[in-house]
């Protein structure tokens, strides 16, 4: 496939709020099951090892009119739970046999309880992630959570999930994460060849495709992107951060690029890049997944930093390793984790004389002009002062 073909396929998957790719996967083999998950992270390896399809649910974006969902949440709550409720109540998620709600924030915790009430015939689990990173405390807790999920999925599948099943699935996702790292590395080196608006769609396809198919799709895109020569511009190289849960509209990403910014790193769809390297296959699988989560995972505002000195260090490394010239804080309106952490990160960037700017959005943001103007002014200021 050409770059155009790959991107068009990913765009079609992104636009399809009926989740037909999931329906086709299930129909190909009667008895197959699909388990949905909300951002940011769940151990998809366990779902895959059960022979089920993990399906990422990131709300309805700007394509869905929210009517019923607004009755369930106050207006000062971020939009993703309301649009997710709308997806559920309008039958768009009927292809899912269960839903996982990881511990992102209080809003998602509440959504898990509401989901149990609304969809009594579906498997629903609030998947609690550790905030203590000691192996004997947080690690033991997390292994217990994963074992509970394993037991639940065994019951739904009617079959045991063996350690060998888990190791095979870990190997599959190791390869998928490797492909994602290759994609992000290529974009950081040559952002004009792999625009973030395309990279985002390629990643998003992994929320509805089996991981093996998604890995092949990423490599198709990388191979074809290298063949298609695109003009290089004198754009500002920026990190985009704060969008770990509710995703920005695709138009917002395009607006930032059109304003003269190359996004060389981001925290979109963290599920694909949460673990920073391969999960070892020699260890007991749940032990290996636990250690990877505790000690080799990204930093984000929904995770607890044990030491104050650790705050912002991950972001500083992103700036350095990606060759970024500035940081754009883009957070959903009313996102408490992102907005409460932002001042601390800004203080650290200011201390290191790294330029930054900030704005808020909703997944259905319609007016992009002010954001484009702000991003354009920021890019111009970077070029002006770096030249000076």
* Termini Cα gap: 44 Å
What strand line-up does the widest sheet have? 2-1-3-4
Task: Give the DSSP E fraction (strand runs of 2 or more residues).
Answer: 5-15%
Query: How many individual helices?
Result: 14
Please characterize this protein's 3D structure:
49% of the residues lie in helices and 11% in strands. The protein is α/β, with parallel strands linked by helices and 388 residues long. The strands form two sheets. A four-stranded parallel β-sheet has the order 2-1-3-4. The N and C termini lie far apart (44 Å). The mean pLDDT is 95.
Blueprint (SSEs and pairs):
Layout: H1 3-15, H2 20-27, E1 34-37, H3 44-49, E2 53-56, H4 80-89, E3 98-102, H5 106-118, E4 123-127, H6 135-157, H7 163-189, H8 196-205, H9 211-227, E5 236-241, H10 250-258, E6 261-266, H11 285-295, H12 313-321, E7 326-332, H13 336-351, E8 356-361, H14 369-387
Parallel strand pairs: 1-2, 1-3, 3-4, 5-6, 5-7, 7-8
Helix pairs in contact: 1-8, 6-11, 7-9, 10-14
């Amino acid at each position: 496939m050409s770059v155009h073909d790959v991107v068009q396929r990913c765009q079609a998957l992104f636009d399809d709020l009926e989740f037909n790719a999931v329906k086709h996967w299930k129909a190909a083999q009667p008895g197959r099951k699909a388990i949905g998950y909300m951002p940011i992270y769940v151990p998809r390896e366990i779902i895959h090892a059960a022979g089920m399809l993990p399906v990422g649910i990131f709300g309805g974006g700007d394509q869905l009119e929210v009517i019923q969902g607004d009755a369930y949440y106050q207006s000062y709550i971020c939009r993703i739970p309301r649009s997710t409720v709308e997806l559920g109540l309008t039958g768009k998620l009927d292809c899912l046999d269960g839903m996982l709600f990881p511990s992102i924030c209080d809003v998602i915790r509440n959504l898990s309880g509401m989901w149990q009430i609304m969809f009594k015939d579906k498997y629903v689990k609030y998947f609690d992630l550790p905030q203590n990173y000691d192996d004997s405390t947080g690690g033991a807790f997390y292994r217990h959570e994963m074992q509970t999920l394993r037991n639940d999925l065994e019951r739904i599948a009617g079959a045991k999930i063996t350690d060998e099943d888990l190791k095979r699935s870990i190997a599959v996702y190791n390869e998928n994460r490797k492909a994602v790292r290759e994609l992000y590395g290529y974009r950081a080196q040559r952002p004009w060849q792999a625009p973030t608006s395309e990279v985002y769609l390629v990643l998003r396809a992994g929320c509805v495709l089996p991981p093996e198919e998604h890995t092949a799709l990423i490599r198709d895109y990388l191979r074809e992107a290298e063949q298609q020569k695109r003009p290089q511009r004198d754009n500002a190289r920026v990190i985009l951060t704060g969008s770990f849960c509710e995703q920005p509209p695709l138009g917002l990403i395009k607006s930032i690029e059109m304003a003269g910014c190359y996004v060389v790193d981001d925290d979109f769809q963290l599920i694909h890049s949460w673990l920073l390297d391969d999960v070892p296959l020699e260890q007991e699988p749940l032990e290996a997944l636990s250690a990877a989560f505790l000690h080799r995972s990204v930093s984000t505002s929904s995770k607890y930093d044990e030491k104050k000195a650790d705050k912002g260090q991950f972001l500083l490394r992103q700036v350095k390793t990606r060759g970024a010239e500035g940081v754009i804080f883009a957070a959903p309106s009313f996102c408490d984790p992102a907005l409460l952490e932002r001042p601390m990160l800004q203080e650290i960037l200011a201390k290191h004389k790294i330029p930054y700017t900030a704005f808020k959005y909703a997944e259905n943001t319609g007016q992009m002009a002010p954001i484009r103007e702000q991003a354009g002014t920021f890019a111009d200021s970077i070029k002006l002062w770096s030249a000076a």
